[in-house]
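Revision sheet: structure tokens.
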Amino acid sequence: MGEYPTSFDDPTTIIDIERYPIDQPSSPAYAELIKTIRKSLDHDGCAVLPSFFSQSALAALIKDANEQAPNVFVTEKVNNPYFTEDDATLDPSHPARRFAKRSLGFITAENFKDNSPLRIVYFWQAFFDFIRDALDEPKDKFFRYADPLSNVIINMTTEGNGFPWHFDTNNYTVTSLLQPADEGG
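Predicted:
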């Protein structure tokens, strides 16, 4: 792990910086990008940034994930969308009474070296500022997640695994799809 065909010492080699100029917060292109993201967040509740990673960085991220697959921590539970216990006082059709199997694998942060593109981007101040700007959060109320095990993780699913729809316990989640499923959802 950690042997990459391209050096990622410069974080701008990890992101498609031409398409997403996150290192140029004073530029008109950055302002337009933030405007577009905020519009998507307001309208859809999410923003999708296709091809955010450079091709070489994406290949390295997938390589890291595949190499660390033996270290995956798998959890299996049955949950409702609220992660609460069943409440028999509610109508059977209430979403809180709809339980589904959740099985997912996590490759936690300690499995990735400091020179992993995942870690480099996560700790890059320009990326942090970009996310904060996109979410329109004030500087004094927006913080980097400091948990050393889950500040950067890769969710790994295999056939039969899934993570049903749910209300997240975080205010925001930044997710990057590294490799889509061959089929299914």
